[in-house]
Specification:
Strand content: over 45%
Structural class: mainly beta
Number of helices: 0
Helix content: under 10%
Number of domains: 1
Shape: elongated
Radius of gyration: 11 Å
Bound molecules: zinc ion
Oligomer: single chain
Length: about 60
């Protein structure tokens, strides 16, 4: 959490994502990358712009 420019990776989360900076739960999806076993999404906080990456099982 030291560098906001490097997205932190959260695993196996869906509706429980909380922005590590401002604590809000509203994100927009910047892009989705599909792999055979996992779906990675880059999300951006609507409130402060913090970016995080989430991994979901495909
Ligand atoms: Zn935020």
């Amino acid at each position: 959490m030291s560098d906001d420019r490097v997205p932190m990776v959260l695993s196996a989360v869906k509706d429980g994502i909380v922005c590590p900076r401002c604590g809000c739960r509203h994100f927009r999806v910047v892009y989705t990358r599909r792999k055979p076993s996992v779906i990675m999404r880059l999300r951006e906080c609507r409130h402060c712009g913090r970016r995080i990456v989430t991994k979901e099982r495909a």
